[in-house]
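From the pipeline queue, job 12 of 40. The input is one protein chain; the requested action is below.

Action: predict structure.
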Amino acid sequence: MKRSRSIVLTSLIAGSGISLTACDGDVGGKPVEAQSYASVQECRAAGALSAVQCDTAFEQAKADAAKTAPRFEDKQTCEEQYGAAQCEPRNNGSGGSFFTPLLTGFLVGQALNGGFGNRGAPMYRDRDGNYYGGAGGRINRDYVTGRTRVGS
């Protein structure tokens, strides 16, 4: 089981034009403390949040993923970026379909919800092991300090 990691998120994402919009919040350019988890079970085991908070954050991340996950016209293109068997088909509701990467974890933090209670946000891992947020901002992890930054 992986340990949770304390992370720092920043909205200084000039190259990608996002400021945690995938998380439904703007952090105003200030570093934000949050946690990342690979699963609800990992979140619960860490003990930083209640079981209900972990469940709620994961459900929020899944809902955001349905809206903000990177979309690809075909499975091959998706798998070129995210790896074999790491993409799933989705329906756009009007007869069309596309592929998105699998949700590989979620972020939880108060600033993701405007400072009012914890909020969950999706996290994806590409074929090279790099993590990305819902709007495509790269999540850079420092495994020595446990800190992470969302960047372009």
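Job complete. Helices lie at 40-46, 51-68, 75-82.
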